[in-house]
Predict the structure of Tubulin-folding cofactor D ARM repeats domain-containing protein.
Amino acid sequence: MTWHGGCLALVELARHGLMLPQRLSSVLPFMEQAMLYDELGGNFSVGSAVRDAACYLCWALARSYDPSLLQPFVHQLAKALVITTVLFVAQYEEYRPHLIQHLVDRKVIHWDTALHQMTFLDPESMKLILSTQILPRCTNPELYLGHGSILASGKVISALCQVAKDHQRRLPDELGQLPLLLISSVDLYCHLLRGDQVTFAKSIIHLLNLLVNRFPRVRKITATKLYETLLTLTDISPSLANHQDHGHSQRH
């Protein structure tokens, strides 16, 4: 049974009072998952029909059952409904963390620009999410996830730059745990060394800068990762030669 068909079947059971109240505890978690359902189909997202059916099921339950039976699940369902319907409610602190996490888990792969807007509302949370969740996904072998994470990282860092400017603070101070961000970026730059010559040249420059970073841990991890990556590259001589020629031409 598909997600869409399952939701509609549960709707009919609820509307006709055929779903026993003691079954609600097993049905409602399924309904919450269906409200957030989103899968990649080719180069586009599918799931709107499932989310619509889940909202229909929520309506059917609210119409058919006494509010006291649904009371234990109200807060959990409210979060899912809010995420499904609107994003501007992020101004309310009780919903903001759930919206941010939803964007990171589900919408980054669709290059959602809402992360940029969320950063202004809660920069502290976004700094942590950037270093622990978004940047590590930039090297994911799934192209859509890596691409979306790279774009999301750029959006969040751009917003953090603006936050620092608005509060007249230095960007490193605004980024907070700067070493973690730098370490997270090492894997990305090493991964990009496998790209074309232009990408290789830009990535190697960033890695060389990290090798002389003021944080010892950043230098050590960069050296290790770069060494391991260079060992696995089959032919880097053309890229290095072009990079050296480019450097000589700039000096002259």
